[in-house]
Amino acid sequence: MTSRDIRTSSLTAAVDPLGPLRDPHEPGCDVFLTGTVFLDIIFTGLDSAPVRGTESWARGMGSSPGGVANMATALARLGLRTSLAAAFGDDHYGEYCWDALEQGEGIDLSMSRTVPGWHSPVTVSMAYEGERTMVSHGHEAPPPAGPGVFPQCPPRARAAVASLGPAGEDGWIGEAARRGSRIFADVGWDDSGRWDLSALADLEHCEAFLPNAGEAMRYTRTDCPRTAARLLAERVPVAVVTMGSEGSYAVDSGSGEAVHVPGIAVDALDPTGAGDVYVAGFVTGSLAGWPLADRLAFAGLTAALSVQEFGGSLSAPGWPEVAHWWRTAPDALRDRYAFLDELIPRGTAPAPRRRAVPTIGFRHSA
Asked: For residue range 28-72, what is the model confidence (pLDDT) as tens digits?
């Protein structure tokens, strides 16, 4: 066992959702992903949106790695061996994000790189009225030296998570699928306004597609999330549409199964990254071979737990948080989440986790 394996196992509270499936010949990586890492600065406790010409004071603030780091951290905290390929600035922000992900979360960054003279992208997120508004700044990282996007393109992995866009095919996604990875994809906002489903060329490689309701309805030209999911299932084996507080709806085109799981009501502090955490929960259940309804329920639970903390990445729950929720779950939810009883070891105790803090590091420990 490597030092990284030891660090990872200590961070996941001895729960390995893929334990029964592991063998000596499996890929060393459960999930591969790539994208942009931001430094997120999150303001919460705002009573309303900032007003032009005035100064607003937030009652809460946190800083944490953001962007693709949200999903990478969520996957790692759920016990999946996670590999991230990303560019990091050689500034203090980049150093902090690298340390938080590699040392703090046990994420494999061997395919990532530090770019001399490039500053880290930054996002300021303001949470109010159950939503958030973001302002970001950054420049595209210069391409790496050498013939490929990654040192290896891409590594062997059980799965890969991709963010699809209308720009056409992203070569690594098809290659990952050909190498045996199961592809799970979400999608970003289409700034072009075309919302052309045929432009998502890599959808053909995907096992599951997980847009939110607004995105799904725009791509399918419908006004109903369930109708959108059924139409998307004609293009991909499993279509999952997330609907915020209303939960999520999924259609498995192979079996014909359609499932709706309601959301869990919580007092939300900050919704930043909740969609990424949802995808991580769904991927975990899919790789573990759970029924579709259990995958939706678990993904919704992890997202609900995440919005009760600051930020995206460092708000992601691990198994100790899931165990704590299960021990105190309302009676009305006991049947729906009974599958957790077999997953969570008896006596699993909450463990301290890195959380977003107002600054990226104190000079002296408290």
From this structure: 899 999 999 999 998 888 888 888 999 999 988 888 999 999 999
Other CB atoms closer than 10 Å to residue 149's CB: what's the count? 15
CB 231 within 8 A of CB 220: yes
Burial-class residue 22 by CB neighbours within 10 Å (0-12, 13-18, 19+): exposed
Beta-bridge partner residues of 250: 240, 259
Q: Are 61 and 113 in contact (CB under 8 A)?
A: no
Q: Check: CB of residue 183 under 8 Å from CB of residue 207.
A: yes
> CA-based diameter of the chain, in Å?
62
**Tokens 């009652």 map to which residue?**
59
Helices and strands: H and E segment counts in the chain: 9, 14
Q: How far is CA 320 from CA 42, 78, 98, 342, in A?
A: 24, 10, 24, 14
Closest to 285 measured CA to CA, from 300, 274, 276, 298: 298
Tokens of 262: 């309601």
User: How many Cα atoms occupy the beta-carbon half-sphere of 149 within 13 Å?
Assistant: 15
CA angle, corner 130, sides to 322 and 38, nearest 5?
A: 75
Give the integer Cα–Cα distance in Å for 19 and 230.
33
pLDDT in tens, 347-364: 656 566 677 677 776 666
pLDDT by residue (tens digit) across 155-214?
A: 889 999 999 987 766 789 999 999 999 999 999 888 889 999 999 999 999 999 999 999
